[in-house]
Amino acid sequence: MKKYLIYIGLIVVGLFLGKMFFANSSINDSTQNHSEEKVNQMWTCSMHPQIMQPEAGDCPICGMDLIPAEVGADGLEEDQFKLSENAMALANIQTITINDSNNQIGSNAIKLSGKIVENEDATSVQTAHFGGRIERLYVSSVGEKVNRGKLLARIYSPELFAAQQELLTAASLKESQPALYKAVRGKLNLWKLSEKQINSIEISGKPIANFPIYANVSGVVSMKMVEEGNHVMEGAPLLKISNLNTVWANFDVYENQISQFKKGQEVVVTTNAYPAKEFKSKVSFIDPILDNATRTIKLRVVLNNRKGLFKPGMFVEGKVQRIAPSIVDKQSILIPASAVLWTGKRSVVYVKSTPDEPIFEMREVTLGSKMGENYEVIKGLEGDEEIVVNGTFTIDATAQLQGKRSMMNQNKSSKDIVEKEIVSRISVDSKFQNQLKTVFDDYIKLKNALVNDNPDLAKDAASVIISSLGKVDMKLLKDNAAHTHWMTVEKEIKSSANSIADVTEIEKQRDHFIHLSSHLTSAIQLFGVNQEIYNQFCPMANDNKGAYWLSLEKEIKNPYFGDKMLNCGSVKEIIE
């Protein structure tokens, strides 16, 4: 009996200890799960689900209390965001895999734009070796071919006429005064009269009144400096004659590309005149002086032109193999310039995070040299990543609206989507700013048409924007980054304006107006238009994702709803 009591006591103690152990374990598991839940818990707004904050508070858009969001419901990391398939199609978002893009681009190829000019080494200027009046000019126009020895002009020269008379007098005295005779002939030699011409004068016994001028070289007359009846001084240029059997192709090389070239590199030249032909040559000269206005140097190639295919003034394109082994890492990555956004000194691209879903995130990159229409990436990307190459501004606008890191919002916190990093303004010519302001003025007419629910006026205004864009002179942008940035944003603005002009349904026009506003805002923030502009925001537009627009008035007049909700929105920024 005593033995059974001991067994029962041990069982009771064991049950008690087990209960304590598992209870503590359950408490620990519960505490751990609660802790993880607390760490992962995000808070959102019921009216604005794009707002995601790590703690409770008020919605930065409407001021409502935030509610707990489903933990990991979208499976996205803090800086990732997702686009719908419809939004992808609407904005024409295009991506490429970097390895594939390098294969398409050609990792060592640099494309240069250039122009055919005369070979100055094979160009001569026909001058007057004595002063006088041009009695006859036998060259009628520029472009006329002349051969060496062809009669070009006849000049009456009182000095030469007197010198010929001196020759005839000295010739009659050459037996008694040979030194005088020799001196007179030498004087005529200095005026470039040939021995044959001098002997002819002496034999005829008569001076030539209108003395002939013959071509010194064969070629094409590329410039006429005189006309019949003109008086010319000794040494004055008459004609410029170019031998076009060889020509120069002069290419512009930007400052950041200079290190990629050296004499002797092979260049493949193409031209629109002969699209199926390639002409190979080598770099013969690299200008040692940089042009301060264009920030470029000239790279020269000599081309054989015996068949006369190349005409001075013709545009050509050159493809050059860059110096990869000594200057640039052979494994360097090239990406299209359209993939890059600039914010002052920062350069960013958008990377597609997952191959099967349209999920993106911003990535800062360090750029190297520009290779034609591509940039070398020194740091920030891997060779197998997929990046956005078309619609980058639309992607950036989406990131802003969802409170993610973007070109305008460098901070990782999504606490307030309207607190944007101010983009460093690029200094540009005031003429360019005025041309951009014309585009903005036309944008305001489009905005007002949407405010007034008038799709026909909106179509017309969008067409005017396209016309104004065509008058913006990008040659005024001397900075290489500014030039490339404008080309990118101009393409997006034009695409959105075209989309508005092509439809008659006002709701579709308003959808495209979202993207147009985003792209034009980026352009104005970067280049400026010397005018105070209100950047306004409606949280209900764009299917409750929110959308911005630009206005000259502080008063809200909503282009996304018109009369339905004319005053919905607020001023989020004043662009100086």
Mean of the pLDDT scores?
Answer: 80
Structural class: alpha+beta
Please tally the β strands and state the result.
Answer: 28
**Main β sheet profile:** 8 strands, antiparallel
How far apart lie the N and C ends?
98 Å
**What multimeric state do the chains show?**
single chain
Q: What percentage of the residues does DSSP assign to strands (E)? A: 25-35%
**Unreliable spans:** 21-39, 103-107, 325-330, 412-423
- Over all CA atoms, what is the radius of gyration? 39 Å
Layout of secondary structure:
Blueprint: H1 2-40, E1 43-44, E2 52-53, E3 67-68, E4 81-82, H2 85-90, E5 94-97, H3 98-105, E6 109-118, E7 123-127, E8 132-137, E9 145-146, E10 151-156, H4 158-172, H5 178-190, H6 195-204, E11 210-214, E12 219-224, E13 231-232, E14 237-242, E15 246-254, E16 266-270, E17 279-286, E18 296-304, E19 315-321, H7 324-327, E20 333-336, E21 341-343, E22 346-352, E23 359-371, E24 374-379, E25 386-390, H8 392-401, H9 430-451, H10 455-470, H11 480-501, H12 506-527, E26 533-538, H13 541-544, E27 547-551, E28 570-575
Antiparallel strand pairs: 1-2, 1-3, 4-23, 5-25, 6-15, 6-19, 7-14, 8-10, 8-13, 9-12, 10-11, 12-14, 15-18, 16-17, 16-19, 17-18, 20-24, 21-22, 22-23, 22-25, 23-24, 26-27, 26-28
